[in-house]
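Sanity check

After download, print the first record. It should look like this:
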Amino acid sequence: MAKEMKSEEVKASFLKNMLLLQYLITVLEGDFLPRNCTYQETMNWTILRESQLNLLLGSRKIIYKGLMKDCLSIMCDMSQLSVFSEEDGSTGELLHGITSVTTLALPEMKKSTCNLLKKLLLMIMELDSSRRVADQQGHTTRADGVRTPAMEIILDELMYNNDILPSFLQVFDPRWKLEIIVQYFQKYIPKYSVQTRRSSGAVKTENFDGVLKCLSNSNITKSIVKKISSEVVQLLLAYAFQAYLALFYQHVSGGVSVTVEHVKSNSLHEICKNLVSAFTSLRKEDPDTEMLCCSKEALFTAAAILSAKM
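Expected structure tokens:
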């Protein structure tokens, strides 16, 4: 009897906290999105400065970096793991005491919570992006304080813990996913200028095509593989290409202009050619590595696009 009561208490507490989290993020979203749209039109930073999200992140009552890390960790866990697993003895006992209605509701609640945590991270990154513009225009003041951009925290976590990398790449938004992968590679690409055969200038790594050109250089590939595994490089390249294609076709079909950043300067044909070259260079430097399924799919897609252009 005592065990059943304990199970009910844990169940009720878990569901209550999950619903409360969903409610809070929904409220923050309802306040932030209209303000951010207005800011894009007026460039009035005060509108975003007074947003509930900005006030919350600037509050001393929360540990900002801890919040970001927890959101990222929970989002990645919920994207692939069941909330309650019958293989886990402790949770198995809990599951035994849960009503069938609650059991059926848990997967959907897990999915919605994962999506809302992703929305929260995206809103914070959008806020950081808008603040960066406001900084450049001289609209911010000392009263705005200093806060580490969300992307830097996410990058640090992904570089420190490669185990969450696949889950993150599967669920995150294409635009920001591509941006994060590009910056991930920038952390490992040597700082010295990279010379190409066709040009005496340095290869720029601010966009995906620049990263691919760098990875086509055997010396750079060798340097990167020494720091991170070839499997991680494959994973990043495959998901970056997937995100690029999503943005490219969104742009072609008349999508919003913010998606143009990585697709406007290079043709799809050039990206596909450089992707194949990057994988070829990786294969030469680490011939014993096994090609991941996502890498094979990316190469097959790139080859199909190239053959269609011929």
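If your output differs, re-run the checksum step. Summary of this record's structure: The chain has two domains: 2-144, 173-309.
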